TrEMBL record:
It is found in: Cytoplasm. Its main location: cytoplasm. Regulates the GDP/GTP exchange reaction of the Rho proteins by inhibiting the dissociation of GDP from them, and the subsequent binding of GTP to them. GO terms for biological process: Rho protein signal transduction. This is Rho GDP-dissociation inhibitor. It comes from Cerrena zonata. Belongs to the Rho GDI family. It comes from the Eukaryota. Keywords: Cytoplasm. SUPFAM superfamilies: E set domains (SSF81296). InterPro entries: Ig_E-set, Rho_GDI, RhoGDI_dom_sf. GO terms for cellular component: cytosol; membrane.
Amino acid sequence: MSAPHEEDDFAPSNTPGYKVGAAKTVDEYATLDAEDESLARWKASLGIVPGASTPASGPQVSVLTLELASPTLPSGKHLRMDVQSPASLEEVKKNPFVIKEGVEYNVRITFKVNHGICSGVRYMQVVKRAGVKVDKMEQMLGSYGAHPKGEAYTKNFDPEESPSGMLARSGTYHVRSRVVDDDGKVYADWDWSFKLGKDWA
């Protein structure tokens, strides 16, 4: 169970004027604005057609992997964790990723929508060092329906630059990641760690 102050770290930012709409079923979305041909084609490409809804079973959204990508990464090197694997997550906590200081990198997440339509899905992460919050990221994934071919979606977040300097390189950064929707439903919540180094390791 999370401590109350940790939950405050994950309070989503509110966009002025934005109001969360009421949840709808796939069939309701399929018949919405049915006279708009281009919208109907787009919805059909996502598998949103009348009568296409299937009985809900299992989690609506499954987060598969989280990856750190950078044009400066050596060829063939991957910093990727399997969010579905407890062993993979434990490994990243025990042996943190090493990110090269002062380089551009981005977070990349792969996920599947198993049924229905999820609205306003976002990725959030809080980074702490020695128990003190040093960074918070909040990135919108968007709204998705189950892929008609059962395939996963991949989202690349905005690039950022890793800190540099001796102080930044000291210590381990502990990260808590979470994927939530507009209704506050948590689809994934996990911990991992990274360090900064003079080079990728």
